[in-house]
Structures are given as C-alpha cells and as structure tokens.
Amino acid sequence: MTEPMSRDQFLAELGNLSDRYWGTHPFHRRLHAGELTEGELRTWAANRWYYQSMLPVKDAAIISNCPLPEVRRAWLPRIVYHDGTEEGTGGREYWLRLCEALGLHRTEILTESHVVPGVRFAVDAYVTFARTRPWLEAVASGLTEMFSGHLMRQRVADMLAHYPWISADALAYFTVRIDAVSDEGRQTVDIVARHAVTRAQQDAAIAALSFKCDVLWSMLDAIELAGKGRT
Amino acid sequence: MTEPMSRDQFLAELGNLSDRYWGTHPFHRRLHAGELTEGELRTWAANRWYYQSMLPVKDAAIISNCPLPEVRRAWLPRIVYHDGTEEGTGGREYWLRLCEALGLHRTEILTESHVVPGVRFAVDAYVTFARTRPWLEAVASGLTEMFSGHLMRQRVADMLAHYPWISADALAYFTVRIDAVSDEGRQTVDIVARHAVTRAQQDAAIAALSFKCDVLWSMLDAIELAGKGRT
After folding, report:
1. Is the CATH number of domain B7-227 2.40.30.10?
2. Per the CB < 8 Å rule, is B83 touching A66?
3. Tell me, what's the ipTM?
C-alpha cells in the first residue's frame, strides 16, 4: 500500500491544480481585460446563474451523504449563504441583481431561457458528483475555493475599471463573497486534510478537485461559444 | 382527469391515516402501560437511535431535491434541530442521553451494535424514499408529525408514572420535541397542501404518508421481536 502524503505535500499537490482553475480561461482573461461586449457579459451572467442556483442543492447532497454530525454542522451555513435567510437575501439574490444590472430581466434568468446545454451538463455533472460520490470527495471538489478569493478581488477591480457602466452595487455578489469564500476555503482544506488520511483518499480528493476544475472550465467553454452566437 | 380534492377533504384523507400511526402499535401500547422490562426499553431506545441519527440525512436529501428556495429555507431548521448547533446539543444528543439514562453506554449506541436488521431496513427505506422520490412526496412522508405531538405528551406522562426509575431529565428528547413537532407539523401540512395541487399529487402525498406509517410500524415490529430475544 502506498504511504499517505504528508499534510504539506498533500496540500501542495492540491495547490498545483491552480493553473487548471478557470481564472486562466481565455473567456475570463477577456472579461478581466475589459474585452467583453455587453451581450457577452449578459450571456456569462445568465448562464452562470444555473451554477449559482444549484449550489445549495449540491451542498445539501453533501450533508445528506455525510454520517458525521460535526461535518454536517460545519457545512450547513453554505446552504444558508446561498439561499439566504428569507426571500430577497443570500448569494442567489446577489447574482440575480448582477444579472439585472447587466440588463437582464429576473424572469428570463429564473426560467433559465439563456442557459446553454454545455453549461447545464457541466453543472449537472457537479451535482451528480455530490449526490453519488463519497462525501469527502464531494467536499474536496469544493477546494476550488482555495483559488477563488484572489480571482474575485481582481474581478471587482477589473470590472469597475473596464466597464464603467457597471456600478459597485451590481458587483455585491463578489464583494460580499470574497471574505466568505476565504473562510469557507480554509474550512474545506481543514476538513479534507483531516479526513483524507489514506493515500487512496488523498488521491481521490485530488481527482475530485481536478474534476471540479473541468466543470468550471467546461462552463466557460460553453459560455464563450454562446457569447459568439455559436449556440 | 380526476378533479383535485378540496383542501379540507385532502387534509381529512391524510388525517384518516392516524390509526396506521405507530401510536397504536402493541409495543407502544405496552410501553405506555408500563409493561416493558428495562431490557425492552433499552432495545427500543438503542434501535430507535438509528432512526434519530438518520433524520438530518433524510432532511438534507429533501433539500437537495427541492428546486424551491422558500421550501429549502423552511426545511433547513430541521437539520439544525436534530444535529444541534454544536457538539452536545440537538435532538440527537437528547436521544443519546435518554439511552444513557436507560443504562446504555454512548459507545454501544454510536456503534449501532444493538440495531437489528428490520429496523435498519425500514429506516434505510425511508432515507431512500427521501433521496429518490419527488421532494413533495418526501415532505409528505413527514406528515406523521400531525399525529406525534399528542403521543409524545402522553408518553412523557405515562413513562414518568410507570417507570419511576426514569427521571424527567431523561425524557428531555420528548419534552423539548413536543412544541417543535407541533410547529413542524403545521408547516409540513401547509407546504403539502399548497404544492399538492393536482389529484395525482394529492394521491401521491397520501401514499407517502401511508408509506411512512409502514416504516414506523415495521421498526416497532422488529424492536418488539428483538426485545423478546427473537433476533
């Protein structure tokens, strides 16, 4: 049996996947460089909505598969974060407001009329992963949070600089999320490092993070093509 | 297509299932009459633990299957109720304390060493139902809450009267749960009545409640036989 990696080595292996994160995707590069048209921004926001809307469902699947009450308790606030505590609150609501600021109507977002098949398939694959894989792998798939705080901070600065018609208010999803995602990222790393104790579990966690990078990347591939009117 | 029932008729049909609820099961009758041995009480508590321990998992499955944020938000406190907000709190903890008061060690509960196959199969069927059936049916299966407030109130009185070695403290699970279950029961009825709008949905809700009565009844059948040393 292969020996488990040390915690440091394990975390380094996970961190090595950062160049597979969607921060380096050509579409995100163009977004940050101010090169997207208003139409492309709308396509992006309307399609990413589908991802945002499925996050509480994905997190509930993790809780449903986890026999450890301490992990369930730790994971529960993520559902609250996205769904909010009442109508009109939460990450879900902030994303809808961003969509509206970009010129979309709430109804066309909620009916998912702009969501292209490639985005739907990628997001559904992520939810299915959370429903069907061991809870530790599903948690590990969320380790992209390790990489997202930095990207979101940059996004707010770049979008305000390059798209002057977008207000800071419209970007509340990101500004509010930056701190939360750093906390959640540390928590996720801690849970994964604590529970992935065999080499097989460590390898499965790395594979799960790799899978998640593929999910996000595929979303942007589909969004990029849709923005060009290719779908 | 068959017309949907009126709300009153629908609720009456659901209420008619009350005699299938486990309140009338012979084992519960003996429990309430003070006829159980200490050994039978321990068998009961240790086996019902498996049901208690799976409730948060079942509730998370419902949330994971539900596309409506308002229902997910309404359902979330049930997970918190059972898992508690930190170690040593929540319905789960109260049940463990009841087990200890009945002379069981926490470890033998947590390792599920007393859980008999019939109880495991019934509880697992309930969790599978929540994972695989439409969320509205899974919610409807929880309508046994309509019947449980009264039974729990009676249980506390009867247990204190008939088993003088059991303290009121030991029964905290029930005393704390009585109010919560009445509130939850009203909420569940409200959700089911609001969302089961076709006759097919109403019939499916009634079937779900019937199924849940079978789950609970089967648990007590298995517990009864185990208490007699038959397993």
Report:
1. no
2. no
3. 0.91
